[in-house]
Amino acid sequence: MRLYLSSFRTGDRPDLLLGLCGGAGREIAVIADALDAAPEETRAECVRREIAALDALGFAGTEIDLRDYAGRPGDLAGELQRFPAVWVRGGNVFALRYAMARSGADVLLTKLIQDDAIVYAGYSAGACVLAPGLRGLDACDAPDAAPETIWDGLGVLGFAFVPHVDSPGHPECEALTQVAGVYRASGVPYRALRDGQVLVVDGETSSIVP
Fold first, then answer.
1. Which alpha helices (H) appear in the chain, and where do they start and end?
2. Closest CA to 33 of 84, 119, 105
3. Contact (CB, 8 A) for 73 and 80
4. Where do transmembrane segments lie in this chain (predicted)?
5. Do 90 and 125 meet the contact criterion of CB atoms below 8 Å apart?
6. What domains appear along the chain, each with residue ranges and CATH number?
7. What is residue 23's predicted lDDT score, i.e. its pLDDT?
8. % the chain with pLDDT above 90
9. 154: how many CB neighbours lie within 10 A of its CB?
């Protein structure tokens, strides 16, 4: 299993992402469905910037819009198998989870990750969705951003992922710092990352850097 989960954007160690993927020049699928509730013009511009940032690191980014694969998991499976890596950007975790469920990406990506057939990378909501569950994140993300609220995460991680903690420059810092406090008080396993930090998993090795 290879994961590169950043609090914000590519974080401070994109070299480790390149290492997980075997260096530059690799194709990477970009999933931006955490932005599905945003205006289409805003969503399109965010996707453009995301791909440009990945291209600057030496990747060749191509968007896979999960809305195009609703009810078509077989077609999505064929598309995902073309890529050695996937980049799942931040936004609303409930919008992302809904799109994953409708397209079958939740099951497909979980299997690809567990089989070590793909590097799963991303930030904020793109990392949060890998947790066992999403309860508590409604303090930050509106559940009604999706037509149906799905509270179960993909369960790839054994703990909740809480980004933007102790990151005063981020607008969600206060809300997510409080979420981390609630998890701590209620005994929910979690990892809290400040912006710049990345959770890197490579086989049996897992660490938060820097």
1. 14-21, 40-57, 73-80, 93-103, 105-114, 125-128, 173-186
2. 105
3. no
4. none
5. yes
6. 2-209 (3.40.50.880)
7. 73
8. 96
9. 20
